[in-house]
Design goal:
The chain has 213 residues and is of the alpha+beta class. Helices cover 55% and strands 15% of the residues. Helix 1 runs antiparallel to helix 2.
């Protein structure tokens, strides 16, 4: 093994060690964040000094701690959000680095409308309160449609729907400086548009919550 490969090996070993230590105390997403952070930290440390072995170990420890803290915070935020919303139609996924909240358009909006329904306003109010309890994040709101109708119209509708969801969050106290809205139209389906069930899944708004520290 060459000298250049030792820092990477050390970082990897540190990541495995951190994951093993956390196995009984943290959720799987927290463990993933810590291990990923350790490897990234080790690589950064290994490339920044002649004393690469020492820097790799320090970088792995720092990166693992930061990654574990982010993962733990997301675990907690996701749990709090599920309890607050209490709606099985709203999907909340913790990827280990961000939360993805998916709201089907069929509960958000009437057909061909960008007016948020009364029921969904309650869900978005709960989301807004959660976002204020966890202020160290940015929020990306993505509107999606199926492929029925004109593509340009669908793109416009998806933009208006993303903006409508954002407006409800703003009305409930979320700072506009944290939020970006994007319309994807029919360009990013998650299911087939060849049947009604698939088209229903494609009509959605995704809210992506990314920690900033």
């Amino acid at each position: 093994m060459t000298r250049m490969k030792k820092p990477l090996l050390l970082a990897t070993v540190a990541a495995i060690g951190l994951t093993g230590c956390m196995e009984t105390d943290m959720g799987p997403r927290t463990q993933t964040g810590a291990a990923t952070g350790a490897i990234i930290g080790g690589l950064i440390g290994a490339s920044s000094s002649d004393d690469k072995l020492v820097k790799a170990a320090v970088g792995a420890a720092i990166g693992g701690a930061l990654g574990g803290a982010i993962g733990h915070s997301l675990d907690k935020q996701a749990g709090d959000l599920r309890t607050a919303i209490g709606n099985d139609d709203v999907k909340i996924v913790n990827t280990g680095s961000e939360l993805i909240v998916t709201l089907p358009n069929d509960i958000l909006f009437a057909t061909d409308s960008a007016l948020v329904s009364g029921v969904s306003r309650g869900d978005l109010g709960a989301l807004a309160r959660n976002l204020q309890q966890y202020p160290n994040s940015t929020i990306e709101i993505l509107g999606h449609t199926d492929n029925v109708g004109d593509a340009a119209y669908n793109l416009s509708l998806s933009r208006r729907r993303a903006a409508a969801v954002a407006a409800v969050l703003f009305d409930n106290g979320v700072s506009a400086s944290r939020v970006v809205t994007i319309g994807r139209g029919e360009d990013q389906p998650i299911a087939s548009n060849l049947n009604a069930e698939g088209r229903q899944q494609n009509r959605r708004v995704e809210i992506i919550i990314r920690p900033t520290s």
